[in-house]
Amino acid sequence: MLEKLFYTETSWFFTLLRLVLGFVILPHGLQKLCGWFGGYGFAATLDFFKSEGIPYAIGFLVIVAESFGALGLIFGLFTRLSSFGIALTMLGAAVYVRKNGFFMNWFNQQAGEGFEYHILAIGIALILMVAGGGQLALDSWIANKVHSN
Q1: C-beta separation of 78 from 51 below 8 A
Q2: Which of 46, 66, 69, 109 has the fewest C-beta atoms under 10 angstroms from its C-beta?
Q3: d(Cα 149, Cα 132) in Å, to the nearest integer?
Q4: CA nearest to 79, candidates 28, 31, 141, 146
Q5: pTM higher than 0.85, yes or no?
Q6: Shortest CA distance to 32 belongs to which of 7, 1, 61, 11?
Q7: If we measure between CA atoms, which residue out of 76, 69, 70, 61 comes closest to residue 10?
Q8: CA-derived radius of gyration, the chain
Q9: Alpha carbons within 13 A on the beta-carbon side of 112
Q10: pLDDT, tens digit, 9 for 90 and up, residues 95-110
């Protein structure tokens, strides 16, 4: 069971996807967790989620997925679990938060952003959930340790 969780395809392609998704999601997580990059920090983010009707537990999981999940992707640690958390977070954001059509608001002609970004993140996360983290992932080191025991 553990072997399947940590096994990863040895491909630089999956490494690239893992790093891109991790580095794109991490700043969003750090906004929510630490208040960096113009964010509000942990408590204020939870309060905002609560004001939007999102329970504290779900808000907590979003913050964990976007911060620690993104770090997990960057290091290739628990790639499948991290990708799953990010995919669920992006699915929730696309369905419940973003209601302004498909397209991003490039020309400031709509009330807010669309959900195309979320679809891209979900697509990358699904690939990583199936294939693993690729080269240089800590998951592959753990898989080798589990396999040798």
Answers
A1: no
A2: 109
A3: 21
A4: 141
A5: yes
A6: 61
A7: 76
A8: 16
A9: 8
A10: 887 677 888 877 888 7
